[in-house]
Design a protein that fits this description.
Largest sheet: 7 strands, antiparallel
Radius of gyration: 20 Å
Helix content: 25-40%
Strand order of the largest sheet: 2-1-3-9-8-5-4
Structural class: alpha+beta
Order of helices and strands: HEEHEHEEEEEE
Shape: elongated
Number of helices: 3
Distance between the termini: 67 Å
Length: 142
C-alpha cells in the first residue's frame, strides 16, 4: 500500500510540474497588447518579413513560434494610456502628415531595435481616428 501511495504522489508531482510549466509558457506567450480593432504578428528572420493578422491573439501567439513582434490598432487617441501602462519613455517623435509617431523604450518589454541611435521597443502612432501600437516597431501601413 505504501508503494502505491508513493507512486500516486510521484504521478501527482509530475502532473503538477507539467501544469506549472504549461501555465508559465502560456503566461509568457500572452499577447503584449489588449485586443483592439486589428491585431498583427510579425514573423520571420526580420520582424517585417511576414505579417499575420489575428482574430484570436492569445491562441495565435501560442501557435506562432516565430513571432518577432506584434501590433494592434485602437479607435481614438490611446497614446497617454499606453505610455502609462508600459511605463514608457519617449525617445523621439516624428510627424508624417497628420500622424505623429512616438518611438519609446519600455522596461516592461524585451526585444529592442536600434533606431536613430536609440534602443526602441515600443512604437506608437496616432492620428485623428486611431492609435497603432507595436513592439518593437509597427510594420506595414497605418
Amino acid at each position: 500500500m505504501r508503494r502505491f501511495l508513493a507512486a500516486v504522489k510521484s504521478v501527482v508531482a509530475v502532473i503538477a510540474c507539467a501544469a506549472s510549466a504549461v501555465f508559465a509558457y502560456v503566461l509568457i506567450s500572452s499577447p503584449v497588447f489588449e485586443k483592439g480593432e486589428r491585431y498583427e504578428f510579425y514573423l520571420g528572420a526580420s520582424s517585417s518579413a511576414l505579417v499575420v493578422e489575428s482574430d484570436h491573439p492569445a491562441l495565435d501567439k501560442l501557435l506562432l513560434s516565430d513571432a518577432q513582434g506584434e501590433s494592434v490598432r485602437y479607435a481614438g487617441d490611446k497614446v497617454q494610456e499606453l505610455m502609462k501602462r508600459f511605463r514608457a519613455k519617449t525617445l523621439f517623435t516624428e510627424r508624417v502628415g497628420e500622424t505623429v509617431n512616438y518611438y519609446c523604450y519600455s522596461p516592461l518589454l524585451g526585444k529592442t531595435v536600434a533606431l536613430n541611435g536609440y534602443a526602441v521597443n515600443l512604437h506608437l502612432s496616432v492620428n485623428a481616428e486611431q492609435t497603432a501600437a507595436g513592439t518593437p516597431l509597427i510594420f506595414g501601413g497605418f
